[in-house]
Design brief:
single chain, 367 residues, alpha/beta, TIM Barrel, nine-stranded mixed sheet, two-stranded antiparallel sheet, 14 helices, disordered N terminus
Length: 367
């Protein structure tokens, strides 16, 4: 793993809050042909500085991870959304909680670790064949801190803060985004390893932000943990995938049967890159259980660097197929209406320029 290779950034998030990730081997299947942009109409001018990225009934948004080259604060990321034309976001938990004043967590692992924390750490280092020292060099400081928090869990100070903080700052955050023309449709707080009180807090925060649910990484334990809370708060627990669908032991039907409050945040790029299958088949089968779709153009299995993010149109994910399928069913209520730009390759001048390029890609396909 090369720490100076920007294209390897697709793997960064695999190390952050990884306690819910399943370690699955890649299925080497035939590649799907590269998606191509198709001509579309010229973009219409929107109101001054008010973004509008909804095309043909499909709300194109972004997970704010896409702007990970920028300072990790809500004001900077909101400006990036507006500058790139994004009008809806899956807001990452670090931005939400730092804005509201969450006390900082540990920046290093202390010894000895609890058996649970040691098991999480062992799973990561063995799965990715990487040492802690290599990880620390590979991850940015903020990512390293979040990785540490995912291993050891919240501090007592953080737990106390989460279970007592008023919703004032979260209301303020929602207003700041809404006033700029950007809706928050999901909150990626990833609370499946938190205490009951903290999980209640996570869903209250999501509701306050105007989000439809809380997102986390898919896995049996995380889904069982969050489903009752989603039902209680009348929101969704929404689960994102990496390589899970390439694992023959992974049973998404079993997970979905746990609760109607469980929905999928289906990452079509990771799905294609790890299974070799066109994601349209999965989307068609599970359309009524997919809340949102992550869009990224990754290299597929059999390539020199599988699951590496590329500039859209230079990878192998059939993005056009996915977008046209969503457009075809845009008027069907049970089909997903949110599609979010996810891993950016970070090989353009900035993530803002790349997300702007991706928004235009979607517009040309959908309009």
């Amino acid at each position: 793993m090369e720490s100076n290779n920007k294209n390897s950034s697709v793997s960064r998030r695999n190390f952050i809050k990884t306690t819910a990730l399943a370690a699955g081997s890649l299925a080497i299947l035939p590649l799907i042909g590269k998606a191509r942009m198709i001509p579309g109409k010229k973009a219409q001018k929107s109101s001054d500085n008010i973004p509008d990225s909804k095309f043909a009934g499909i709300q194109i948004g972004a997970i704010t991870w896409a702007f990970r080259d920028l300072p990790a604060n809500a004001e900077t990321i909101l400006k990036a959304c507006v500058d790139s034309g994004i009008s809806s976001v899956e807001l990452m938990g670090n931005l939400i909680e730092s804005y509201a004043g969450l006390p900082p967590g540990p920046t290093e692992l202390s010894s000895p670790l609890s058996p649970e924390a040691q098991a999480r750490l062992d799973k990561i280092t063995k799965t990715y064949k990487i040492s802690l020292d290599q990880l620390k060099k590979y991850l940015k400081p903020a990512e390293w801190s979040e990785f540490i928090s995912g291993i050891v869990g919240p501090t007592e100070e953080q737990t106390k803060w989460r279970t007592n903080v008023p919703m004032t700052k979260f209301k303020e955050l929602r207003k700041m985004f809404n006033d700029a023309g950007v809706k928050i449709h999901m909150a990626k707080l990833q609370p499946s390893t938190w205490s009951d009180g903290e999980i209640d807090y996570a869903f209250n925060v999501a509701k306050t932000l105007g989000a439809k649910g809380v997102s986390d990484e898919i896995g049996d334990d995380s889904c069982k943990r969050l489903a009752p809370f989603a039902e209680k708060h009348k929101l969704y627990a929404i689960f994102h995938n990496h390589s899970q669908y390439a694992d023959v032991t992974f049973d998404v039907d079993k997970i979905l049967a746990l609760s109607p409050a469980i929905m999928l945040n289906f990452d079509c790029g990771h799905y294609f890159a790890t299974t070799g299958k066109n994601p349209c088949g999965f989307i068609t089968k599970y359309h009524d259980r997919i809340f949102s779709i992550h869009l990224n153009d990754n290299l597929g299995p059999g390539s020199a660097a599988p699951d590496t993010s590329k500039i859209w149109g230079q990878g192998q994910t059939p993005l056009t197929d996915v977008l046209l399928l969503l457009k075809k069913h845009a008027k069907d209520n049970e089909w997903p209406k949110h599609a979010d730009i996810d891993d950016t390759a970070l090989t353009m001048a900035s993530s803002v320029e790349e997300v702007k390029f991706d928004v235009e890609y979607c517009r040309k396909v959908l309009v």
